[in-house]
Amino acid sequence: MTAVLPRKELFEMPEGVIYLDGNSLGPLPKGAAARAAEVIEQEWGSELIRAWNTADWISLPKRVGDKIGQLIGAPEGSVATGDTLSIKVYQALAAALKMRPDRKVILSDSGNFPTDLYMAQGLMGTIDKGYELRTPASEDVTQAITEEVAVVMLTQVDYRSGRMHDMQAITDKAHTMGAVMIWDLAHSAGAVPVDMAGSNAEFAVGCTYKYLNGGPGAPAFIYVRPDIVETVEPALAGWMGHDAPFAMELGYRPAMSTERMRVGTPPIVQLSILEQALTAWEGVSMRDIRAASIALCDLFIAEVETRCPQLQLASPRDAASRGSQVSFAFEHGYAAMQALIDRGVIGDFRAPDIMRFGFTPLYIDADDVVSAAKIIEDVVNNDLWRDPKYQIKSRVT
Amino acid sequence: MTAVLPRKELFEMPEGVIYLDGNSLGPLPKGAAARAAEVIEQEWGSELIRAWNTADWISLPKRVGDKIGQLIGAPEGSVATGDTLSIKVYQALAAALKMRPDRKVILSDSGNFPTDLYMAQGLMGTIDKGYELRTPASEDVTQAITEEVAVVMLTQVDYRSGRMHDMQAITDKAHTMGAVMIWDLAHSAGAVPVDMAGSNAEFAVGCTYKYLNGGPGAPAFIYVRPDIVETVEPALAGWMGHDAPFAMELGYRPAMSTERMRVGTPPIVQLSILEQALTAWEGVSMRDIRAASIALCDLFIAEVETRCPQLQLASPRDAASRGSQVSFAFEHGYAAMQALIDRGVIGDFRAPDIMRFGFTPLYIDADDVVSAAKIIEDVVNNDLWRDPKYQIKSRVT
C-alpha cells in the first residue's frame, strides 16, 4: 500500500505561497525544527562529547545514506553522506580517472551544472597531465562517447530545461566504449525513479536540499557500485573514511566499504535535520511520485500555453525526456519571476531568460498548478512585471 | 576594557559536569538553540528560497570568516569558511604545491593529526608525480626544513600532548629555505593567541567545533595570505568560489579574494549556530584567555602531580611550549577516563595511554580544576577504574 499524494500535512508552508522551487530548496518538513532542537539542546547541550556514542552520532551518516539509497535504487551500505555535491563530484571523478589511467578525456555536456564542470577543471589542473574536458550539447553526448573517453560525467536532469538523459542507454554506451560512468542526481533523487544498481553505473552523486528537503546547505551523497568499492582510490582521504579512524594511525588505510568516501567530521545538526526530512518518503513509491509529477507538469504546460502564448516552452514536451520541472523562456523572465514571487508563486530564474518551475508531488497538487497558472497569466498578460521594483537584479539564487 | 573570565553564564552546562573536553567538542553556547530555531522556522520555513537574500544567507560564510579572523590575527576578508578541516587541508596543500613546482617534499611531523597526513597522502596519490611526505618527530621538524621541501604543513598544538610549535621560528625557517608554510590551527584558534598576518605564513586552516564552540560538525575555515590570494590555484574549484557563481558560466574563474577557497553550497544552519557561538568572544582578548589558560593548566598539573604520582605528565611542563590542554599518561588511562566521565569530569582518551584534559577559560575556572583533580585522585588512588564496566572499549571519540 502506498501513501496518498500530496502529503501537504508533512510540511510547513507559509500562507499564500505556491512553492514551485523545491528543485532549488525544498520546504521545511514538520518535525525538522523539533529534531534540530533536540540534537542541539539534549544531545549536544547535555551529552556534550558523549553524544557521539550516547546519541549515536557516529552512525548517523550511514543511516542517512541508507535512507537515500532506498530512493535511488542503491543497496544498503552503498551510499555515503557528507560534504557538498561539489566535493562528491571531485571524489567520484578523481576515483574514476584512476580506473582508466590510459585515457585522458572527461566527457560531460554543456547542460551540466557549472560546479560539476568547475570541479573537473580544478581536478585536471591538480593532476596536470593533459586531461581534456569535452562539453558537447546534451543531444550530442551519446555519439561523443568514444574509446578515448575515460569518464562520462553527466547530470541526469538539466537544471535549466529539465531535459532528462536516458540513464540506461548512456551508461550502456559508456561501458561499451570502456568508459566509467558518473551520474549527478541533483535533480533526480526524490524527483524521478532511479535504479542505480540496475543501471550498473560506477558512481552517482547528489544533493539533498532540493527534492529531499534537507534544508539550506544540507549534506551531499555519493554512491559507489559495491563490486568496485574496495578498489576505489579516495583522492580526499579523510580520517572518517579510514578503516579505523580512532586508531590514529599515521598511514591512510581506506575503509572496506563506501565509507571510504567520507572525509571529515560529519555535520551532525544538518544530517539530523535531513534524517528527519527523509521520513516524509516513508510508504511513498517513486513510481507514484513520477506519475503524479508527470500529471502536474503536463497540466502546467497546458495551462500556461493556453493562457500565455508569449511564453516559450523550454523543457521537453515529452514527459519521458523531462524531469520534474518545467521551464519557460520569456524575454522579461527575470522581472516576471520577481512579480510572481511577490504574488506568492515562487519559482526561480536562470540566465538568460529561463523561468523555472519545479513540481514536487509530496506537497504540490493540481489546484496549486491551476492557481499558479492564473497568476502567471495575470503577471504576463497584464504586464505587471513592468513595475520598476521588479527590474533590480539583486537576487542571487 | 576586556571581559571578566570565566563567562560561564554564556554557556549551557549540565549540572554536575566539569567539562575538560572543549578541545574536542565545545559546549552549547546560550542562544545557539534559539538562533538555529530562528533560521529553521523563520528563515527556511517562511522565506524558503528567498532567504538567501532576505536573511542574507549569501554573505553568512564571509561574516563568520571575518569573526574567526579577529581571533587569529587575520585581516578582514582573508578567512573563508565551509567544508571540513580535512577539505581545507587539501585545498591549502594543493595550492601550496602549485607554488613550488620544482620541489617534491611535503614536510609534516609525526605529531600531526592523522587526517592532515591522510589528506596529504590522498593528494599525493591523485597528483602521482613522486611526491614524498616526511613526518619526523616534532622536535626534529625545524632541522628537517631543507631546500628540498616544497611545503611545511604542521598543526601548531599537538592533539595528544598539547606541545606547541613556535609558529614564528618555523615559518621563518620555512621561508628561508624557500618553502611554503601551512598551519593547522585546530587546537590554536580560541585557545592561544595567533597572529596570522604577523607570522607571514601563506596558509592556515582550522576547525570551529573545539575552542570556538560551533557544535558537532561545525564548518571549518581557511586563511590565505592576502598578497598571494589572487594567484592561488584552487584544486577544489567549486561554484561558490567562482567570481560570478550565478552567472552559470561553463568555465571556472576564481573569485579575486579568499572566497575562491569556498567550494559548494554552505551549511547555513551550522554556520548560523557558529556565528552565534562566536559572540561569546566579544570583548575578550586572546591575551587574557592565554593568561587564564596558563594559570588553569599550571594549577591542574600541580594538583594532579601532588595527588596522583602514578600519572606521568605527557605535556610540556613549560607553559610557553604548551597549548591549552594537559595530558597525562596512565597505563589504565582508558578505564580511568570512563570512570571520570561517570563522575562528571569529562576529558578524553587518546591511544595508547593518554588522558587528555582541555582548559577553556571562557567557562572553566580554578575551582573546577581543583574539583576535577580531587575526583581524579579518587578514581586513580582508590582504583575505581577497575570496575568492569569501564573496560569496555565502545567509545569512538
Automatic annotation (TrEMBL), chains A, B:
EC number: 3.7.1.3
Metabolic or biological pathway, per its Swiss-Prot or TrEMBL entry: Amino-acid degradation; L-kynurenine degradation; L-alanine and anthranilate from L-kynurenine: step 1/1; Cofactor biosynthesis; NAD(+) biosynthesis; quinolinate from L-kynurenine: step 2/3
Cofactor: pyridoxal 5'-phosphate
Entry superkingdom: Bacteria
GO biological process, one term: anthranilate metabolic process
EC class of the enzyme, as a word: hydrolase
Catalytic activity annotation: 3-hydroxy-L-kynurenine + H2O = 3-hydroxyanthranilate + L-alanine + H(+); L-kynurenine + H2O = anthranilate + L-alanine + H(+)
Molecular-function GO term, any one: kynureninase activity
Coiled coil: none
Keyword field: Hydrolase, Pyridine nucleotide biosynthesis, Pyridoxal phosphate
Gene3D superfamilies per UniProt: Aspartate Aminotransferase, domain 1, Type I PLP-dependent aspartate aminotransferase-like (Major domain)
InterPro entries: Kynureninase (IPR010111), PyrdxlP-dep_Trfase (IPR015424), PyrdxlP-dep_Trfase_major (IPR015421), PyrdxlP-dep_Trfase_small (IPR015422)
Pfam families, per the entry: KYNU_C
GO cellular component: cytoplasm
Protein's job: Catalyzes the cleavage of L-kynurenine (L-Kyn) and L-3-hydroxykynurenine (L-3OHKyn) into anthranilic acid (AA) and 3-hydroxyanthranilic acid (3-OHAA), respectively.
Family listed: Belongs to the kynureninase family.
Subunit structure: Homodimer.
Protein name per UniProt: Kynureninase
Source species: Actibacterium pelagium
